[in-house]
Specification:
The protein has 184 residues and is mainly α. The chain is built from seven helices and no strands. The longest helix has 32 residues. The model has no long low-confidence stretch (mean pLDDT 76).
């Protein structure tokens, strides 16, 4: 008898929950727009840029993997040349990673074409105005990478902190530069 009452109570609770879920779904359906939101032109370009970045990442990191010690190349290279090629691909990968910090994030966040142009203009202006900063940041990142190969456990945390710090430092420098231009 007691078991039947508990089953009936559970059935009532399930029925109540079902009704509440149906009401919620009806409310959600009322709030959904009737017209499908098509992607804007900038969103398509952002997705194409993201696809290009993924392809570039695959190329860079595959080439780094190809020249790792112990990998079998289909052709023979001098060990010194392999080391230089590996270092070159690693440097290109780090430069590529550094360039991803600023323009792509802002491009994906902006839906106004004026802001998009400004974002790209700021990124290019920064790279033209301060190529030494880009070189300096690249050297710091490569130094951290070398230290990671020597002491990976100790430098993993330090490398992450340095990369985040460098990114913040760059963004703050850009913001300060923009503030100076606005004041002038």
């Amino acid at each position: 008898m007691e078991l039947e009452q508990r089953i009936e109570e559970l059935e009532r609770e399930v029925k109540t929950l079902k009704e509440e879920i149906q009401k919620t779904l009806v409310e959600i359906e009322k709030n959904l727009p009737s017209k499908v939101n098509t992607p804007q032109r900038w969103e398509k370009r952002a997705w194409l840029l993201a696809l290009l970045n993924i392809i570039l990442a695959i190329v860079l990191f595959t080439n780094i993997y190809l020249y790792l010690p112990g990998s079998q190349l289909p052709f023979a290279l001098a060990p010194a040349l392999e080391t230089w090629l590996r270092a070159g691909w690693v440097a290109l990968a780090f430069i590529w990673l550094l360039l991803q910090m600023y323009p792509l994030v802002l491009l994906l966040e902006q839906d106004d074409p004026t802001w998009q142009r400004m974002t790209w203009r700021n990124a290019i202006t920064f790279m033209r105005a301060r190529p030494v900063w880009l070189l300096f940041i690249t050297v710091i990142v490569l130094g951290v990478a070398v230290l990671n190969t020597v002491m990976p456990a100790a430098w993993l945390f330090v490398a992450l902190v340095l990369l985040i710090g460098v990114g913040v430092w760059i963004v703050l420098a850009i913001v300060e530069l923009l503030r100076r231009r606005v004041r002038a």
